[in-house]
Amino acid sequence: MTRARLRDLGIVVGSLPPGKWNAITDVPGVRVGHATLIRDEPTVVRTGVTAIWPRGPEIWRDYAYAAYHSFNGYGEMTGVVWLDEQGLLGAPIAITNTHCVGVVRDAICAYAVRERIDTAFHLPVVAETYDGRLSDAESFPVTRELAFAALDAAASGPVAEGNVGGGTGMMCHQFKGGIGSASRLATTKAGVFTVGALVQANYGARELLRVDGVPVGREIGPDVVPLPAGPSGADGGSIIVVIATDAPLLPIQCRRLARRATTGLAWVGGIGANGSGDIFLAFSTGNHVPHDLPVTEARSLAPEQMTPLFQAAAEATEEAILNALTAAETMVGYRGFTAHALPLDRLQEVMKRYRPASGTKRG
Question: What is the number of structural domains in the chain?
């Protein structure tokens, strides 16, 4: 069966409406690009880089408020000490594999030099999940040029999902995983705001996987789809979640929003295993902070109006993970390791059995 997004399968999770693309790029100005590296010689490589521009190249000089949350910290996200200190993003964000975080971090700095960005220094945010079961991570395959390609490829519109970019060699709930994205429209008394999520999903045990509360992982068990041989990441792996919104938020509000990715992760079956790096970042494009002005003005959504955004972030994270699963294709990688795709026909059959009325919302 051809791979598809969750909603294309007739499965709807959550209750808030999605944006036009049902992707993080529904937030105006946000762009996403991927660079994917798949080869078998001289060694097997299944890896890549995913880049997110919070507001296009303007981000170098027009900063965005941001914050992060570590649900379980067995992972890496560079630049977070400065993010804690200042609460500002001044560069694109990238996600790649564990062994190549430094290369991609340095590449963003070099990219700024190439573009003749005149700020004094750069401390970019780069995050990772481990792809060493499907890819020869110790060959250090990611290069500056690959990172540049992801940055240059960034665009608005639909986001490629599954086996692309940083998600190329990833698994999720012991199926093939990778990149996924989704969005929601949140209605507040201040207006309607967009909240989008992009995930690099590489975590979780099969039996914990749920779709709209349905125990899909138990229904599609090892007797139906074999578990990966050897260590498979059930107690490790990791997930990176990036949440974007056009609501006017301050850094402390961005941190509150980032925490809500935990709810979406939990709905799918993530528990924050001891060996998992579950790190979430949220940024807001609703304020502008030019780097060269001595005084800037900021707006903030009233605290009591945050709840719709919290729900939107949780729902977008949930659906982004499921889109990563439904988009990803079976992959054979390093030393013959195989990550099987979630079978979409079986998923539909299970969902219909538990939810006879198509599109039933969670109660």
Answer: 1
Q: CATH number of the domain that 139 lies in?
A: 3.60.70.12
Of 212, 278, 284, 300, the catalytic one is 278
pLDDT score recorded for residue 233: 56
Residue 189's pLDDT is: 98
Euclidean distance between CA atoms 287 and 189, whole angstroms: 18
Contact 284, 253 (CB under 8 A): yes
Contacts of 24 (CB under 8 A, 6+ apart): 30, 32, 52, 159, 181, 182, 183, 196, 197, 198, 242, 243, 244
CA–CA–CA angle 180, 184, 187 (5° rounding) = 165
Whether 118 is catalytic: no
* Angle made by CA atoms 342, 346, 348, in degrees to the nearest 5: 100
CA dist., res. 196 & res. 65, Å (int)? 16
Residue 356 included in any domain: no
Those residues of the chain that have pLDDT short of 50 are 359-360, 362-363
Out of 181, 183, 232, 238, the active site residue is 238
Give residue 121's pLDDT: 87
- C-alpha 142/C-alpha 147 separation (Å) is 8
Catalytic (active site) residue 181: no
CA dihedral 35, 40, 45, 49 (to 10 degrees): 0
Longest CA–CA span in the chain (Å) reads: 64
Please give the model's pTM, rounded to 2 decimal places.
0.97
Q: Which residues contact 124 (CB under 8 A, 6 or more apart)?
A: 78, 79, 91, 92, 93, 94, 105, 108, 109
User: Above pLDDT 90, what percent of the chain?
Assistant: 93
Q: What is the pLDDT of residue 360?
A: 45
Q: Confirm if 44 and 164 have CB atoms less than 8 A apart.
A: no
The rounded distance, in Å, linking the Cα atoms of 290 and 88 is 11
- Within a domain: residue 22? yes
300 is catalytic: no
In 3D, which of 89, 186, 106 has the Cα closest to residue 145?
Answer: 106
What pLDDT, on a 0 to 100 scale, did the predictor assign at position 357? 75
Check 181, 183, 276, 284 and give the catalytic one.
Answer: 276
Is the residue at 327 inside a domain? yes
Q: How far apart are CA 166 and CA 231, in angstroms?
A: 20
